[in-house]
Amino acid sequence: MADQTQKPELFELNNGTIQVLLSNLGCTIISLVVPDKDGKLADVVLGLDSLDLYQEGLSPYFGCIVGRVANRIKDGKFTLDGQEYSLSINRPPNSLHGGHQGFDKKLWEASNYIRGENASITFKYRSADGEEGYPGAVSVTATYTLTSSTTMRLDMEAIPENKATIINLAQHTYWNLGGHSSGNILNHSIQLWANHFTPVDENTVPTGEIVPVKDTPFDFTAEKTIGSSINEVGMGYDHNYVLDCGDEKSGLKHVAKVKEPSSGRVLDLWSNAPGVQFYTGNYVKDVVGKERAVYGKHAGLCLETQGFPNAVNQPNFPSVVVQPGGKYQHTMLFEFSVE
Ligand SMILES: *[C@@H]1O[C@H](CO)[C@@H](O)[C@H](O)[C@H]1NC(C)=O
Ligand SMILES: *[C@@H]1O[C@H](CO)[C@@H](O)[C@H](O)[C@H]1NC(C)=O
């Protein structure tokens, strides 16, 4: 297990087309460079200029893996096997993304670092029984692999040691396919393979309803510009979509297709998760990022595939409980192309 007092490190996966810089601090994607339609390279993820700045807590979850449970748990409370648990309330009144020191703030142990054509790295972390209030110890691994010249894959696994627990990991990259410093993402178009979404209360926790997107500003079943109806949804999109209508490919469902018109860059995302939190960077404000770029509201968009938020308190949502002897498994496939 990684010593939490050590310095975080950087690792590069580079196959000549995709160049990804990763850190074992939170399994974070620090930068990801891909060509546009004219072959021009740009870094298409938001991030900070040094690992120290991440450790000082200045990153609004840029690029990291969040857990043990992503998203909000209402009032940080739940009951499992007859016992009530209270989690760290780091975003009052709720617990968000694993608490004060979630998986994004931990140093993971790096292993199996392979460079070249099929570059890959595995990060490991052991979360102790009671960490941030969660029951039971869990061993977690996350492997990033460049599986083809234009594809990156992320495989996340977690195994409870001897007690049932709740597990729901998410990758929290903020994408801007025009380049991280190119302004806001309102001119990107997106298609989401979701006929339903889960509306939220005033604290951004799902009410428990599963509602059709049809005839609402939440409908992205056909390609649509993100900015076209964002003003009808308050601060912007920060909602869980139910992935119920995507094509399947080797066990993964089509989640989203994102396109930036001037660069022609396209990102297709595939996953086996039941939902995706579509977040339009609503709370980003004056963050000094890489190369001193200043990121404002909507500077990036997140597509956090995951189980439904607050699922542990919503019996009608797919369960996020993992029993001892069981395994949590979550894959994401990021395909880059140009149009
Ligand atoms: C990378 O993977 C491909 C497909 O599995 C294989 O054909 C190729 O030999 C691998 N390259 C290296 C350098 O291992
Ligand atoms: C948005 O994209 C369209 C289509 O490529 C383009 O004509 C327009 O200038 C873009 N607007 C902004 C604000 O970038």
Structure description:
The protein has a single domain, classed as Beta-galactosidase, Chain A, domain 5. The protein has 1 helix and 30 strands. It has one helix spanning 51-55; strands at residues 10-14, 19-23, 28-35, 41-43, 65-66, 72-73, 77-80, 83-86, 95-96, 109-114, 120-127, 138-148, 151-160, 165-166, 170-171, 174-175, 189-192, 196-198, 211-212, 224-225, 238-242, 248-249, 252-259, 265-271, 275-279, 287-288, 294-295, 301-306, 321-322, 328-338. Strands 10, 11, 12, 13, 17, 20, 22, 23, 24 and 30 form a 10-stranded antiparallel β-sheet that branches. A 6-stranded antiparallel β-sheet has the order 16-28-25-21-18-19, with no helix packed on it. A 4-stranded antiparallel β-sheet has the order 1-2-3-4, with no helix packed on it. The termini are far apart. The mean pLDDT is 97. The structure holds 2-acetamido-2-deoxy-beta-D-glucopyranose (NAG) (2 copies). One 2-acetamido-2-deoxy-beta-D-glucopyranose (NAG) is lined by residues 116-118. One 2-acetamido-2-deoxy-beta-D-glucopyranose is lined by residues 187, 261-262. Keywords: Carbohydrate metabolism, Isomerase. Pathway: Carbohydrate metabolism; hexose metabolism. The active site is at residues 172, 304. This is Aldose 1-epimerase.
